[in-house]
Q: What sequence folds into this?
C-alpha cells in the first residue's frame, strides 16, 4: 500500500518553538486515520501543512511531503471562515467550477453530497444564518462534492449533535471503502472504534502511531445512564419564560412556561440547529422574541442593554468573538478592571498555570490555538461580576485534560460566587457531575429531564 | 439583459450625459428609469428613498447655480441637478435586476475579467452582512466586559478591522481549500447568456439616447 510520506518535517511560526520537529510519518492511503493530541499541540497546523496552506500563508517549513498526486481538500475547524459564497449551493458550484466540471457532472455530485450529508433543506439558505453544526455539515458536503482523494478534516464534528455525528462517521467509513483517504482530528473518540484504521498521537513535537492495545483502550465503549435531579417549584427563578417564541426564519422555540433557577448549573442539550444558541441570543438581547422572558421580574426587552449585560453575560461558541484586545496580558488587564472578589491577582496567576497559559502571556490572542483561546475566554468571563453566565459549548475543542482544568475552575468560581450557569454542550458525560439540572431542547420546547442514556 | 452589458450601458450613458448637456435627455432617462423600476415592482418605500436621498445633493447643486452665481444659468442648474438623478436611478435599475453573484459571474464569463477580481468583489460583498453582525457582536461583547463602545470608539474599529483582516486571510485560505487556484481556468456551471437580443437592445437604447442627446437641448 502506498503512503503519504512526511519526511524530516519541521515547522514553526515566527519566534515560536517548533510545532513539529524532524517528523517522519507515513499515512496510509485508502485508510481512515485519526490524529489526536492535547489542545494546541499542532493538529490543525499539520493538516494545513498537508493541505498545502502552510507555509504558503504563514510559518516556515523544512522537509518534504509526498502526496503521490492525490487530489485533496481540507475542512477547517471553524467552518464559517471557509465559505466564499452566500449559500451552500453557490459554494458547491464555486468549488466545482474550480475543478472545471460541467453542468451534468455538477448535478450528479451535488445530489451525492446532499444525500450524503443530508443538507437538502439548507442548500439555499444564507450560510450566515446556519447554526455551527449545520455549517460543519455543509463544509463536509463541499468536500464530498469535490470528490477529492484525500479528505483532511479538522474537528469536523465539534458542534455536531451525537446522532448526526455517528451517522457521518459511518458515511466517512463508506468513502474509505471506496478508496478515499481520510484524516480526522478529534477530541471525542466514540463512534470511531469500528471504522478507524489507525490512530496517531501527538507527543511533543513528534507523532507516534498507537498500537492495537492502546487503540482498543481509546475506543472502549462506556455506556452510562446519567441521572439529573428535577428542580422543585420552590426554588427561586432568575429567568421566567411565559408564552415565549423565538424565530429565525423558522420558529425555534415556542415555550409555554419555563423557569431557570438561581445559583444552579443547568445543562442544555439538543440536536444541531434546534436553536440552542438562538435561545442564548434572546437572553442577551441580540435576538428579538415575542411573549415574555423576565429577568428578576422585569421583562428582558425592557432592560437597557448596557445595564442588563452587567448582570447577564454569554461565553460565545467562538472564542475569538469574545476578545477585545491584542495580547493575552491585555485581555487579562481588561477583565481585571471590573472583576469579582474571588479572582485576586494571586488566584488569576494560579488559574493561568492551571490552564497552561502562563507561557503565552505576551502572545496575540488570535495566534493561540483553538483550545487555548477557549480556556482563556472562559477565564476572562469567570473574572467578571455577572450573576448569570450563558456558556455556549465550553468543552468543544478541548482535550480531556483541559476539560478537567476548565471544569475545576468553573466549579471553584461558582462555589465562591453563587453564579447561575446555563451551559450548552453535547458532552453530557463530562458535565453530568457539574450540572444540577438538565434541560432537553426538542420539538421547539425546553424541558427538564432526569435520565439520559449516554455513550462515551 | 446580460448583467455586464447592463452595467456597461449604464456606465456609457452616465459618461455621455456628463459630457453633453441635454435637459430633455436627462428627464427622458429619469422617466424611463422610474417606469422600468415600477414595472419591476420595486417597493414604494425604496423608490421614495431613491428620490429623497439624492435630493440633498441635487438641491445643493441646483441652489448654487440658480441663486448664488454672479451670472445665474438656470438651464445649467436644471441639467446638473437632474444628472444626479440619472446616475442614481439608472444604477438602481441595474441593482434591482441583478444579484451580486450574477454580476460577478458575468464579469468573469462575458467580459473575461480575471476570476480573482470577480470573486474578490463578490467575497467582499458577502462579507458585509458578516461585518454588520460582527460590529453588533463586538459591542455586546464589550458591554459584557463593562465597556460601552459608541459608534466612534477606536476600540470598536480596531476590533472590526482585526475581524476584517482575519476574514480576508481566512477567505484566501478557504478559497484555496475549495480548489481555487489563481490564474487557472475555471468552468462555468451556471452560464450567464449573452444573446444577440441583448446586443440589439443594448445598441437600440444607446442609439435612442444619442439621438436625444444630439437633437434636443
A:
Amino acid at each position: 500500500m502506498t503512503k503519504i510520506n512526511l519526511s524530516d518535517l519541521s515547522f514553526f511560526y515566527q519566534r515560536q518553538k517548533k510545532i513539529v520537529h524532524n517528523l517522519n510519518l507515513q499515512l496510509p492511503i485508502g485508510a481512515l486515520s485519526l490524529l489526536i493530541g492535547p489542545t494546541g499541540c499542532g493538529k490543525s497546523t499539520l493538516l494545513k501543512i498537508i493541505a498545502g496552506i502552510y507555509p504558503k500563508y504563514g510559518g516556515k517549513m523544512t522537509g518534504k511531503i509526498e502526496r503521490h498526486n492525490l487530489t485533496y481538500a481540507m475542512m477547517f475547524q471553524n467552518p464559517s471562515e471557509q465559505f466564499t459564497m452566500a449559500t451552500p449551493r453557490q459554494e458547491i458550484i464555486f468549488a466545482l467550477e474550480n475543478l472545471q466540471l460541467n453542468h451534468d457532472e455538477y448535478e450528479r455530485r451535488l445530489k451525492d453530497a446532499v444525500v450524503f450529508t443530508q443538507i437538502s433543506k439548507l442548500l439555499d439558505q444564507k450560510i450566515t444564518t446556519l447554526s455551527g453544526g449545520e455549517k460543519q455539515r455543509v463544509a463536509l458536503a463541499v468536500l464530498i462534492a469535490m470528490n477529492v482523494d484525500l479528505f483532511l478534516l479538522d474537528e469536523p464534528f465539534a458542534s455536531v449533535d451525537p446522532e448526526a455525528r455517528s451517522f457521518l462517521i459511518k458515511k466517512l467509513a463508506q468513502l474509505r471503502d471506496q478508496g478515499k483517504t481520510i484524516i480526522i482530528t478529534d477530541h471525542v473518540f466514540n463512534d470511531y472504534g469500528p471504522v478507524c484504521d489507525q490512530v496517531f498521537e501527538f507527543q511533543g513535537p513528534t507523532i507516534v502511531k498507537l498500537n492495537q492495545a492502546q487503540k482498543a483502550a481509546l475506543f472502549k465503549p462506556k455506556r452510562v445512564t446519567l441521572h439529573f435531579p428535577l428542580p422543585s417549584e420552590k426554588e427561586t427563578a432568575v429567568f421566567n419564560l411565559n408564552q415565549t417564541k423565538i424565530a429565525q426564519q423558522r420558529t425555534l422555540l415556542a415555550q409555554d412556561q419555563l423557569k431557570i433557577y438561581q445559583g444552579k448549573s443547568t445543562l442544555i442539550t439538543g440536536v444541531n440547529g434546534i436553536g440552542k444558541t438562538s435561545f442564548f441570543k434572546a437572553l442577551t438581547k441580540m435576538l428579538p422574541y415575542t411573549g415574555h422572558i423576565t429577568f428578576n421580574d422585569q421583562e428582558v426587552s425592557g432592560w437597557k442593554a448596557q445595564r442588563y449585560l452587567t448582570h447577564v453575560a454569554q461565553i460565545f461558541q467562538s472564542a475569538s468573538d469574545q476578545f477585545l484586545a491584542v495580547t493575552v496580558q491585555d485581555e487579562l488587564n481588561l477583565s481585571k478592571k471590573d472583576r469579582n472578589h474571588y479572582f485576586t491577582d494571586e488566584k488569576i496567576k494560579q488559574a493561568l498555570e492551571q490552564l497552561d497559559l502562563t507561557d503565552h502571556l505576551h502572545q496575540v490572542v488570535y495566534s493561540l490555538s483553538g483550545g487555548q483561546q477557549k480556556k482563556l475566554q472562559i477565564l476572562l468571563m469567570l473574572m467578571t461580576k455577572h450573576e448569570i453566565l450563558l456558556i455556549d459549548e465550553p468543552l468543544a475543542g478541548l482535550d480531556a485534560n483541559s476539560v478537567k482544568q476548565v471544569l475545576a475552575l468553573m466549579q471553584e468560581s461558582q462555589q465562591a460566587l453563587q453564579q447561575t450557569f446555563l451551559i450548552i454542550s453535547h458532552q453530557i458525560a463530562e458535565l453530568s457531575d457539574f450540572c444540577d439540572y438538565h434541560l432537553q431542547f426538542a420539538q421547539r420546547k425546553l424541558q427538564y429531564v432526569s435520565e439520559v442514556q449516554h455513550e462515551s | 439583459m446580460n448583467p455586464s452589458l447592463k452595467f456597461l450601458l449604464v456606465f456609457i450613458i452616465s459618461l455621455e450625459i456628463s459630457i453633453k448637456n441635454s435637459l430633455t435627455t436627462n428627464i427622458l432617462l429619469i422617466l424611463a428609469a422610474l417606469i422600468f423600476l415600477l414595472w419591476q415592482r420595486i417597493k414604494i418605500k425604496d423608490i421614495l428613498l431613491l428620490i429623497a436621498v439624492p435630493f440633498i445633493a441635487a438641491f445643493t447643486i441646483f441652489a448654487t447655480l440658480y441663486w448664488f452665481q454672479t451670472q445665474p444659468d438656470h438651464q445649467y442648474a436644471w441639467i446638473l441637478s437632474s444628472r444626479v438623478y440619472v446616475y442614481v436611478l439608472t444604477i438602481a435599475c441595474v441593482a434591482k435586476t441583478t444579484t451580486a453573484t450574477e454580476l460577478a459571474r458575468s464579469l468573469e464569463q462575458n467580459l473575461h475579467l480575471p476570476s480573482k477580481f470577480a470573486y474578490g468583489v463578490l467575497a467582499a460583498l458577502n462579507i458585509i452582512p458578516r461585518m454588520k453582525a460582527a460590529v453588533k457582536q463586538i459591542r455586546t461583547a464589550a458591554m459584557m466586559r463593562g465597556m460601552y463602545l459608541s459608534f466612534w470608539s477606536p476600540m470598536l474599529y480596531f476590533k472590526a478591522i482585526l475581524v476584517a483582516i482575519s476574514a480576508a486571510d481566512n477567505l484566501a485560505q478557504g478559497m484555496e481549500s475549495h480548489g481555487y487556484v489563481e490564474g487557472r481556468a475555471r468552468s462555468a456551471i451556471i452560464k450567464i447568456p449573452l444573446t444577440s437580443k441583448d446586443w440589439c437592445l443594448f445598441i437600440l437604447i444607446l442609439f435612442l439616447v444619442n439621438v436625444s442627446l444630439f437633437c434636443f437641448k
Summary: The helical segments of chain B are 3-19, 23-39, 44-67, 74-97, 100-109, 115-144, 154-177, 196-215.
